[in-house]
């Protein structure tokens, strides 16, 4: 049973999008949400890459491990198993923050900047990612391409890092994960909308400029609706082969269900038809 | 009974604590039901904690906020391990009432309290807690209130509002027993002294703690926040709320209440400066949330968001909290004199519902909520009910006749009231009959257009535009 259900037209084009994403290596995907919650996309990519046998490094800053694990189980993957067999490297930000904050001066930690008065860069975090996705040579478990997943980058801004530092972090990760190791990066950033969060806008624009694919979840402009939870824009920024369809962005409306998300063309919600 | 006031433990001991905690992998975030991991035993003990119940939606353990109507809006209650942020009303009248309900609920259920404030001494806050309405005396009080309500209600049994009678009531109040989940409180009486004395609580009064400025390593957090975090962490560890240090007797819940977080009294400057360089508050929230997630505790924070100059901070704070509820009182606002709101004291906005263990992001579909502090009870109601009542006064003279006629002609049906209104106007303008049959998206623009086409100045009195329920325009 597929995560992406929907009408025939949308389902086929969405699924080609996903195959490309799985095959097309070295891609940076930006997830973005405005006036809604885009975490369903993160859950999707997490289960998607775990099912595809990719080595995943998940920097989870906003929720606890058990939350991701329970949702993962609904989507058909077990994070505990994946973590035990080495497929998944999970950095739990909330728990680490407590460790870092109340710990005596000790060994470096990826989230060390939490403690420092004016930390300038995210080098420890980058090194953590690089170590996590380092190719292993023992050959017993050959995972496919490495994937870095971040939920979400906006939290780093709240924790005192500047937008430039976060962009630098992504730049480094891109060089390592995307170019050197031919892997993918998926990162979520909130669109703060009209709250004039300048740092966040710098980050969002900077990442939009670099990314190959932008998935933007938006709340409906008309407000809350029971049957349509929002719309998803899919924007390919680097068409692999120039076709007419690639240039334009695709927009679907979606409804999140217990274990899946159904997509339909605009105005074609089953509730309306 | 004195508050335990040990704070600022040696860094070495806290370090070892955390190490022990992380080895154990026990978090309060566990799903209900059989699991393979070693946390089953802790779960079976969780259910027996007084004043808690598991959530139907996500299996999280819930505690009551002390206001059953609010519990219902938040999906059954406040999940253990999460933060509830209350955006204060301008004069901090109603938000401090919610704060007290939250603490009083903890006392009734025998939970441990942790009260932090920079303004009032926690001991004084506890003295001001409202008295619970328990079984016998509550029934009488409640009937009394209900009676008043009934008479008012029966007078306005409207012909046109048949549809609204089917709607669920916001609040199912009934007689309670002391063991129940969630209680009502009588704001006019104070909590009996013996209950307060029997309770277990810890107070953090910032002016008391701030004097001991010792060797604190430079950190980006405001001094008060560091102290508070250390205090909370210390309590959580010493009393075994984090599961690493098993509690001797019955497991218990720690209720943390933090008053006026972010205000200048805490030594935070976000209310004074507009540049976005202050990350103290967001960092504090992040670490606090980390602490809560790994312990049996629930936290309510009230925050004067109207003081915060930089709006970007507010959205970040919202993202870092689990549940966010905004209070907007009518005191001093132009809405105070608006006849639409004459029965209410303010609006309550559910800004964020937590996302826990679910793909679905639950959004409450009732948006227009108002609160009212009755003689004893704090109630939350759906504004639209009242709106209809008011609408009769807004109608031009002679209109009620048409309304009645329309009602009888259509008989029973589930037409929206606005649709009905349009249908009347459509006759006058003879173009809107198709709008009646169309669904929601057309309503807003449609009715507006129809009103303009109909022309009479009667409709431009401004009140209609402010009606919260009917002509909803998203912010």
Mean pLDDT of chain A: 83
Give the H and E element order of chain A. EHEHEHHEHHEHHEHEEHEE
Sequence of strands across the biggest β-sheet of chain A: 1-10-9-8-7-2-6-5-3-4
Low-confidence stretches of chain A: 5-12
Our measurement of the CA-to-CA distance between the termini of chain B, rounded to an integer number of angstroms, reads 49 Å
Roughly how many Å is the radius of gyration of chain A?
19 Å
> Mind describing the biggest β-sheet of chain A?
10 strands, mixed
* General form of chain A: globular
End-to-end C-alpha gap of chain A = 24 Å
The rough form of chain B would be described as: globular
Q: How many DSSP H or I helices of chain A?
A: 10
Largest sheet composition of chain B: 9 strands, mixed
Instruction: Work out the helicity level of chain A.
Output: 25-40%
Count of DSSP strands of chain A: 10
Indicate the structural class of chain B.
alpha/beta
Give the neighbour order of strands across the main sheet of chain B: 8-5-9-10-4-11-12-13-14
- Mean pLDDT across every amino acid position of chain B: 68
Family (chain A): Belongs to the ELP6 family.
InterPro entries (chain A): ELP6 (IPR018627), P-loop_NTPase (IPR027417)
Protein name (chain A): Elongator complex protein 6
Pathway (chain A): tRNA modification; 5-methoxycarbonylmethyl-2-thiouridine-tRNA biosynthesis
Your description of this structure?
The complex is a heterodimer of chains A (273) and B (475). Chain A has helices at 8-23, 39-51, 65-74, 79-84, 93-102, 123-132, 153-158, 163-180, 198-210, 244-247, and strands at residues 4-6, 28-34, 54-60, 88-92, 144-151, 184-191, 213-218, 230-236, 250-256, 261-264. The radius of gyration of chain A is 19 Å and the shape is globular. Chain A is α/β, with parallel strands linked by helices and 273 residues long. In chain A, strand 9 and strand 10 form a beta hairpin. The longest helix of chain A is centred in the middle third of the chain and has 18 residues, at 163-180. With 475 residues, chain B is α/β, with parallel strands linked by helices. Chain B is globular and about 55 Å long. Classes of the chains: A alpha/beta (273), B alpha/beta (475). At the A-B interface, helix 2, helix 3, helix 5, helix 7 and helix 9 of A face helix 1, helix 9, helix 10 and helix 11 of B. Chain A: Pathway: tRNA modification; 5-methoxycarbonylmethyl-2-thiouridine-tRNA biosynthesis. Chain A: It comes from Felis catus (Cat). Chain A: This is Elongator complex protein 6. Chain A: InterPro entries: ELP6, P-loop_NTPase. Chain A: Belongs to the ELP6 family.
